[in-house]
Amino acid sequence: MKHEGCTLCRIELKDVGVTAGTDTLLDRVNFHIHCGELTALVGPNGAGKTTLVKALLGQTPYTGQIRHVDAHGHDFPAPRIGYVPQQLPFDREMPLTVLDLMAGSLQKRPVWTGVGKKTREKVEKALSETQAEALIDKRLGALSGGELQRVLLSMAITPLPDLLVLDEPVSGVDQNGLSLFLQTVSSLRRSHHLGILMVSHDWDLVRRYADHVILLNQQVLCAGSPEEVFASEAFQKTFSAGGGF
């Protein structure tokens, strides 16, 4: 949905479609994700939310266009996308620290040969953006759910992306961790003018933090403010039969 009068750059999806054999997973999906705004993606189970995220990340073939454009419709180079998954599967008994994990993505040499001073400084700076610098030497398996998600958020914004994708990032996180994570995301959006796409099944969370909501069920059924989408006939019909996210 175009925001009239908007002067911001945006990620623009135009007629995006995805098929698997004879099944249509996404059908002519159109919407914009504007920088400086948090756009929430909601929909029932099987609506294509995960498929859409994979298309944005370049992990699945699609038809149509995904463009990074300025206010005048001119193309920028391919956008840099940061991604925070719902969870990170790993062996919690591994003697791997937060520093090891993040240094592995920042330096060319294997982390078992050591982490240089400059790399450690880069990791500390990245963690400070998410109020997680105290975790730098903590073992990964000892982190709480909220701590781990803030570490993953630090990795997703290093280097700073054009679009940050949060895929149900607070599922299973306790209330304190949830509040701190979302406050951190809001702060990053303001300070770096990030465009954020958040997949969520938590309607209260969406109401509190989203600027814009996309209701998806293979196609975009409705788009607007949280109040507009949750009050819409499309939303009521989609979930009237008790369908879950």
- Average pLDDT across residues? 88
Number of strands: 9
Structural class: alpha/beta
Radius of gyration, in angstroms, nearest whole number = 19 Å
For the biggest sheet, the summary is: 6 strands, mixed
Morphology: globular
Question: How do the SSEs run, as a string of H and E?
Answer: EEEHEEHHHEHEHEEHH
DSSP strand content:
15-25%
Oligomer: single chain
Tally of DSSP helical segments: 8
**Spatial ordering of strands, largest sheet:** 5-6-7-3-8-9
Helix content: 25-40%
Give the low-pLDDT segments.
1-7
Distance between the termini: 22 Å
Question: How would you summarize what this structure contains?
Answer:
The chain has 245 residues and is α/β, with parallel strands linked by helices.
Write up this protein.
With 245 residues, the chain is an alpha/beta fold. It has helices spanning 49-56, 98-103, 117-128, 145-156, 175-192, 203-209, 226-230, 233-239, and strands spanning 10-20, 23-34, 38-42, 63-69, 81-84, 163-167, 195-199, 212-217, 219-224. Strands 5-6-7-3-8-9 form a six-stranded mixed sheet, sandwiched between helices. Strands 2-1-4 form a three-stranded antiparallel sheet, covered by helices on one side. Helix 4 runs parallel beside helix 5. The model is unreliable at 1-7 (pLDDT under 50).
